[in-house]
Write a structure and sequence with these properties.
alpha/beta, about 25% strand, binds zinc ion, 3-stranded antiparallel β-sheet, Rossmann fold, RlmA_N, binds S-adenosylmethionine, 8-stranded mixed β-sheet, 9 helices, zinc
Length: about 280
């Protein structure tokens, strides 16, 4: 019989316990028999039945809820982001080593799960995937759907990981914390940040934004900040327009917390294709 999810997660976390540091005191952590992750100073965090751990040390509100994460999961599973997953997987394979990868602001975990699957199909080296997000609803969904990964509710500003633990840090369409990224990265590691480019979801924006400044988008400032933080920076642009099913349109509308300024009826749209246009920023220290 398969182990209960919580016990299987506890075993996996225990195998990888060297990655953890207490978010309260910074000490090493172990996984206890009653399925919590704890330090010697009695700071203890329970593993939930869906297999994730909540490491939050303060209350936080999130504008990201269950519906938004369900929509993101279905959109990601539709294959819209497959070229991005392939590009990131290729970067990780080029490291030619066993990798520990942290996805910061991982949401409901589908990007990391896809990247790990691709990697394992194509490489003989091992892949330990860890996802952190401040939004509990995202991590609950990640824990429920994707096993053999470490899912943590936590704030990047107080992350529960040991310094120099990860070969790569992913930061996909999420806020960055460069001080923390540099602390967590192993020597020769990569920070891989994905930001929208001007054509990202342009068909939707044209339909649903009235003539506002949001119709056009520039990532210039974010790219500048990234470049200030790393010695070596490479930028890869991924642009692709794909055909979509009509059912995907309301989901695309739903996957952003900003909500779109609606000037058309979602159900009435005849959108048949959608563009992803992303910059992948690759930084080395
Ligand atoms: C636009 S969503 C992107 C989620 C996912 N990477 C994706 O592309 O589907 C941004 C995510 O960043 C998370 N986030 C924001 N601030 C954070 C913080 N301080 N620590 C951890 N996660 C954070 C949010 O909760 C949210 O899930
Ligand atoms: Zn502690």
């Amino acid at each position: 019989m398969a182990l209960p999810r919580k016990v299987a997660s506890a075993n996996y976390m225990s195998e990888n316990r060297a990655l953890f540091a207490c978010p309260v005191c910074g000490d090493e952590m172990t996984v206890t028999e009653d399925c919590s992750v704890a330090c010697d100073n009695r700071h203890s965090f329970d593993i939930a039945k869906q297999g994730y751990v909540n490491f939050m040390t303060h209350a936080a509100t999130s504008m990201y809820g269950k519906d938004l994460f369900e929509a993101r999961k279905l959109v990601i599973e539709s294959g819209l982001y497959a070229p991005m997953h392939t590009a990131i997987c290729d970067l990780l394979k080029q490291m030619n080593t066993n990798v520990a990868v942290l996805d910061t602001g991982c949401g409901e975990g589908s990007h990391l799960a896809s990247i790990k699957n691709k990697f394992q199909e194509q490489s003989d080296t091992s892949f330990v995937g860890v996802g952190i997000d401040i939004a509990k609803e995202g991590i609950i969904a990640a824990g429920r759907h994707y096993t053999d990964m470490i899912w943590c509710v936590g704030d990047l500003a107080k992350s529960p990981y040991q310094q120099e633990s990860f070969n790569a840090i992913l930061n996909i369409l999420s806020p960055a914390n460069y001080t923390e990224f540099k602390r967590l990265l192993k020597p020769n590691g990569l920070v891989i940040k994905v930001v929208p480019q001007s054509g990202y979801l342009q068909e939707l924006r044209a339909l649903f934004f009235a003539e506002s400044e949001k119709e056009s988008y520039s990532n210039e400032l974010i790219v500048e900040r990234f470049k200030e933080n790393f010695l070596e920076v490479e930028v890869k642009r991924i642009t692709q327009t794909i055909e979509i099913n009509k059912e995907l349109v309301p989901l695309l509308m739903h996957m952003t917390p900003m909500g779109w300024h609606q000037k058309s009826d979602v159900a009435a749209t005849n959108l048949t294709e959608i563009t992803i246009d992303l910059d992948i920023l690759i930084g080395k220290m």
